[in-house]
Amino acid sequence: MSEYEPVIGLEVHCELATATKLFCGCANEFGAEPNTHVCPVCLGLPGSLPVLNERTVEYALRFAEAVNLRVPERSTFSRKNYFYPDMPKDYQVSQYDEPITIDGWLDVDGGRVGIERAHLEEDTGKTQHVGGGGRIHEADHSLVDYNRAGVPLMEIVSRPDITSAEQARAYVAELRAVLLAIGVSDVKMEEGSMRVDANVSVRPVGTSELGTKVEVKNMNSLRSLGRAIEYEIERQTIALDTGERIVQETRHWDEADGRTHSMRTKEGSSDYRYFPEPDLVPVAPTAEMRAAVAGSMPELPAARRARLQGEWGISDSEARVLLGTEGLADYAEAAVVALDGGTPRDVVNWANGDVLGHLNETGLSPVVLPLAPDGLAELVALVAAGTISRSQAKDVLAECLSEPKRPKQVVEERGLSQVSDAGELETVVDRVLADNADALADYHAGDDKARKKKRGFLMGEVMKALQGRGNPQVVNQLLDQKLG
Amino acid sequence: MSRLTRADVDHVATLARLALTDDEIEHFTAQLEVILEHAAQIAALDTRDVPPTAHPLPVVNVLRADEVRPSLPRDEVLAMAPAAEDGRFRVPRILDAP
Amino acid sequence: MSALELAAAVRAGTRSAREVVDEHLAVVAARDDELNACNLVMDDAARAAADAVDAAVARGDDPGPLAGVPIALKDNLCTRGVPTTCSSKILEGWLPPYTATVVERVLAAGAVPVAKTNLDEFAMGSSTENSAFGPTRNPRDPSRVPGGSSGGSAAAVAAGYAPLALGSDTGGSIRQPAALCGVVGVKPTYGLVSRYGLIAFASSLDQIGPFATSVTDAALLLDVIAGHDPMDSTSIDAPHEPLLPVVDRGVEGLRIALVDELIEGEGFQPEVLDAVDRAARALEKAGATVDRVSVPSARYGLSAYYVIAPAEASSNLARYDGVRYGLRVAGEDVATMNARTRDAGFGPEVKRRIMLGTYALSAGYYDAFYGQAQRVRTLIIRDFARVYEQYDALLSPTSPTVAFELGAKSADPLAMYLSDVCTIPTNLAGHAAMSVPYGTGEGGLPIGVQVLAPALGEPVMFRVARVLEESQ
What residue of A is the nearest CA neighbor of C91? Predict the structure, then answer.
């Protein structure tokens, strides 16, 4: 068996988070009633004409600034001609030989990945297949919704610099973090606002010629991206070992059976007859446009992770989790600013734990949480001061995340505040010891093992008498004194 | 310029998504040949250092503010459709991936 | 009465718009069975619009510079809720949910649309014979074609259906029918008039322009429709300088030249060349100098055009696929449905050009055809730029011949294409040009002389045209 190495390039499509579509004023909004965000332009009605959304140019320039892409003096749009019912004009307006940005890179775990280009193009509508279990070829007929037609996409094409499924995942994760940080996309793979296609080939180790590449589509999470690439590398390796030839084709990842499948495409359908889009004029980013973007760039994820690790003493993976969800790091940073007791680390533990869990469950963004960042700081301080225990704090947080209440308010309403006053606690401890004279006698008579057991019992009785509100540390100290 | 064959015309009809009859294919093969021959007069011109003109207007950066404008009423949109179902345009089954 | 006089009378309240429109509708009723210039006569809507104009005048409001003037609209201009067919079966029954910018502008100026006029299907043709609704006939001689593709609009003005009409010009589709019908027709500078709502044939060449019975009326209409439109990225973003105040300034001191390449060649009728000579002498007499000049690359205009226009058209017309609007012919799967719909919905000329354009763009042929045609386009623009350093306007015939018999060129596409040889270079360059009636030729049929001007050279172009009109 020969040794092979994979060569992987990724094409990432992300929907830009603009208010309107690429070429018309229809709202760019996910989840609306079918065919309610359409107009003559995005329906491709006869006589309609496109006008470019200035925000999309700004977003492309922001991305260029973030990943070291060059911005050529001018870029143009072309028409990619092919018939498909989800495409209202039966051509897609995209950038072909003169993209808006070229030649950049992104540093990720496992090494630098070159970015060949990132360009603007319009999205297609959505088809739904009726009958045949919803599968395209077996369906009775299909239904088309054009709300998504004309939504602005940025296509980011990497160089074939990626050498493993793991690195591919790291690249996409970092790309997501960057796109989130610069505020140009929601990058939700599950909702389809970020779609990743992989070009995978393998070649014998030590050779420089590229193998036949296969395009793999339909991965809807980072996990499936990794699985699909691993499957495809193995499939191609086995094929080559058994003397088969790799066919240049597009294959579809099936999440259910964990395989890629060859897709049917008509012969000659790849003759897209690109030509310059005559209804649009070139884009030539001005010095002013570029200066405005450069002057408003936020801190990028790599720098921010390094800073938070240094300032807060958290790990790289903690920082990555924090930056992996839109607005979570901002939320945590605001909480840290408001801290009055406790540490940034405590804030991160809560943010990456219960807060993130709640966001994932509800699909909410941190900015709309009923608990503002200074509320989280308040919670951290309550635990640090020993007013409530960690497990109580969990319950308090849960309530504050679902209702507009401050942690102190919940603590009061539930009567949760911990008793830490040594005098108050001593009275209770004395009473419990008096009420359990037998156990006390057993404790003094017993060996180490029996002592430990009886001590636990007495501790439990004290906490029971305090309805769980006793500060465990203080109670322990008192017991130690009394049992002497 | 090589001669235009029936197979070429057949292929072009597929790309253009026209269900041409055999008669039409034959007819077009002959006619396109003549027109292409005329068009080929320009092939002889030396244009090595001449840039292409895609557009007669020398303007750049025609941009629109990112502001929402009203969409069309859905009833009006679907009233145009040869077939509609469930608020969507209905089409016969799709055999090929895009 | 000219459009200018009609509008003045309606604004002054000395004539009612209703009376004016009724008179014109009567002409339509009397002649259109024979001429077939109209795809749709908008009787009721026209009367209602005229009444609204009269009501405005009665209230003391000014309905605008085209108050009560009947106007015919080429049936490739979208009109909300009113059928817009491009004379194609594929759009039969389609009601656009929006109105073209030019139509909005003439309505806002008080004009009264009376008809949607016939054209060569999707504006592809030079005779208005390629219409799904039958050919239009020339009002001067109904055995002849009116030219095309805006033959319906040209015939409507020539026959007195309306003093004004709108057409579109991709390779001569306003100027050539204007010449053949004996009216004035203008192809404005590319970008001067918004294309929003004009159903596209070839986007980088298409331009909307006026038909009128006089140069002054054409200026009146162009002043109304010109000017920036934010809905069209290719619309020139500068204020339009009105032409009406300058048309009568004469040609004293202007430098004019006849273009060799647009006069020499096969197929030019002697009467046509003679008319151009007389026009040149008339301009000299009025104080201009007239030379001859060569625009060498202009002879390649036709070849470049018959690559670029079909290529753009093949893409522009892809959307007629039976999915969203218009005709659908059933098929067991979507691709079959698309192909059957397009085969049944498009006529032979449209299919021919779609095939030609698809071929010219397809893998392996792009550079030889489309790429080369775009470079030739650059050469043409450079040659004209050089000539316009020395001359203010150029002169040529509009069409090599007067109106030809119906069916005379139907069997020979290339012969038909050659009738646009004088008009095409202007579209490739994006410049302005117009046709002015200048005498008659074979069979007493009208001849048109073409005045060409550089981009935004309309003021000089209209002055030259006005002098020619007066010199007869």
Answer: A46
